[in-house]
Each structure stands twice: as C-alpha cells, then as structure tokens.
Write a structure and sequence with these properties.
about 150 residues; alpha+beta; 3-stranded antiparallel β-sheet
C-alpha cells in the first residue's frame, strides 16, 4: 500500500509540475492570425451619446492594410501616415454606425482617432484602431435608443 501511495504522490507531483511549467502569460491576441475583432461601447449622457469603438486586426489583416497606411511606399509607417490612417478609418466608422433616438438619426463626429501597432505572434505587428465618437442627443427623459454598427 505504501508503494501505491508513493507512486500516486509522484504522479501528482509530475502533473502539478507540468501544469505550472505550462502556465505563462499570453502576450499575443487570443484569436487567429486572420481575425478582426470589433468592440463598440456606448455611454449615454442626457445631452449626447458617446461611442468607444476599437478594431483589433491580427497579423495577416495588418499586413494586407499596409499599403493603405504606408502611402509613400517607403516600407516604414511614419507617425503622420499612422495618424492619417486612423483619422480616415474612424471617419468611415462614424459613417457606418447607425443610431436613432426615438426614430431620429444621430450624426457622429470623431473627436479623437488613434492607430497603434502592438506586437503579435512572432513579434509581427497587429493593428489596434481606437475611435471616439460623439453625437448630440436629447436623452434627459425616457427615450428609445437604437444602435447598429455596419463597419
């Protein structure tokens, strides 16, 4: 019986070691290299609707978008090219969202737009586009708000 308990103890020790050795922090995005993930968070105020829209593109879509960002084709994305890309994409996103308050369409403006390139798998760049949108709205009393994102 003590031999069985020793074997069980060794087995448990090996399993615990393997589990702890396999645990690590994930620095890359959680999905595949071809994915594009989109988040739209709405904040409703009495006088406006704000949208925080984030579009994360994995390695392959980032590579495919490169010619749209590197406009002079020198192989390097400058700060100005990065900002121009963010401004253009966020303007398109603002045009693609549909929101109404009691049936009246809201028109969004883009107070800020950012594009970053965090490293993904194999240290290849991914893209994170962050758009802050704002639309005036009258929400100081009960109302029906609808929202649809066609970006």
């Amino acid at each position: 019986m003590s031999r069985t308990l020793r074997r069980l103890g060794v087995l448990v020790g090996v399993i615990v070691t393997l589990v702890l050795a396999g645990a690590g922090s994930a620095s890359a995005h959680p999905l595949g290299n071809f994915t594009v993930n989109h988040y739209a968070g709405l904040t409703v105020h009495p006088d406006r609707v704000e949208v925080l829209a984030v579009v994360d593109s994995a390695e392959i879509p980032t590579l495919q978008q490169r010619p749209q960002v590197d406009l002079n084709g020198d192989g390097t994305v400058s700060g100005a090219e990065q900002q121009d890309y963010a401004t253009t994409q966020c303007a398109q996103l603002a045009d693609a969202v549909r929101a109404t308050v009691d049936g009246e369409a809201l028109r969004f403006t883009v107070p800020s737009a950012e594009a970053d390139y965090p490293p993904g798998q194999a240290n290849l760049p991914t893209t994170r586009l962050t758009c802050h949108l704002v639309a005036p709205a009258r929400l100081d009393q009960p109302a029906t708000l609808s929202f649809r994102d066609d970006f």
